[in-house]
Amino acid sequence: MTEPCDLSAVEARRMIGARQLSPVELLRSCRARIEAVNHAVKAVTDTIWPRAEKEARAAEKAVLRGESLPALHGLPLGVKDLDDAAGLINSQGSPIFRRNRVKRDEAMVARCRAAGAIVVGKTNVPEFGAGANSNNPVYGPSGNPFDPARIPGGSSGGSAVALATGMLPLCTGSDGGGSLRIPAAFCGVVGFRPSPGLVPTDKRAQGWNMVPTHGPMGRSVADTCLLLSAQAAFDPQDPLSRPIDGEIFLDPEPLDLSRLRIAYTEDWGICSIDKRIAKTFRERIRGLRKLFRRVDAVTPDMGRAHEAFGILRATGMLNAQRANYARHRDLLGPNIIANYEEGLRYGAADVSWAQAEQTRIYRAVQAVYRDYDLILSPTVAVPPFPWSQLYANEINGKRLPTYYNWFSPTYMISLTGNPSLSLPMGLEPTGTPFGMMITGPAAADFFTLRAAHSIEQALAGDPVMRRPLPDLARLARAPRITDEYKVATPPLDARPWRGIDGRA
Question: Which CATH code of 3.90.1300.10, 1.25.40.10, 3.30.1360.120, 2.40.110.10 fits the domain covering 4-300+369-477?
Fold first, then answer.
């Protein structure tokens, strides 16, 4: 299938500005694609077509009048179903909020709309964004566009699927433990976790918490940069926000890759990695060596990163879910309950230790950049598993200690806050996409994006490492994915990380 909806966001926007593509035509193409394949993968949930059509007609008239057009003018946009978008339900994947139709855009969405984007609808998520499997009791599961029986990742899973299948040219996302990067890796698109505060939010309850952040997704690095140009801004409502002109991210110029010094790590020294992912990663590193000045293995001292992340994640859940746990525990899923109750077991000394260990890990990772420009690593530890399995509970036959330990490669960098991007690089042995995580120095967002853009361009002609595409005709013929929220994975034992005083 090749339709206007298959155009890159950058090309579609160029054609709109040149009067070669009508925003109405693009919107209708996106709608047709959603109607053709969404039944098989359930990426897009609530929609608002009458308003979108009206806005597309207004965008078309603005072009014909010769008005100055903003960066996203006429481009359809999907908004992750954790974010508020006026007129649409923000369910957060929870039965508690299944009828929560909101009246205003949150600040990040408002910036995208002000930049000319046409908000079409919401994209599917896990319950409250927890667990990296976009399967919830409200809408059911999203399927992987390369194999609908498998997960697309999460929590920005619906956004990644919508991009990969051409349903929408741009989608928003967010990332705590890997929620932009994991679905990007599983679906063969780009997900960029920016430095904390670069994409400010007026919904950050714990204002100085650097682990959760909003960010852009796209089919390419250039598309991702286009969305970031609207998302990045200064907002005094976000304590981590700093003055920034988002337009700097437009049209990233290529870098001279032959000057770059590359560090790589297969497992950060402490992560369990599926043998198939590890094998593919080593093959990709061999294929990339010729592009760079030097490519060396490194093992930063990540110490007790698993425990630190676990404590910070669980205690953060206390604030986020206190009211829901008190009033609606019977409506909460096992991931939310497990995290909340784990958080209750930790004390102030545990949190203080976790913050100190996070700081030490941050400094250990930054030390790598004294000698190197980028760190490459696998984005995910496992291939996508069946969506009916809520999480991966073992890797290479070894049982994992927590339901979220399977996405440890991404939360290593969530702890440090370095800008980090998942770039598609062909397929891994299960026939689903392989994602390479590219992590840049602290606060070097534009450099990281330029480097990823240059690598992407260098691999565009490589039949093994270029971005893979799903079989859309096959998806169109595929049966409807179930609406039922199935949980086939048995609950984990109650085995949270031990606190610093040895309590379980």
Answer: 3.90.1300.10
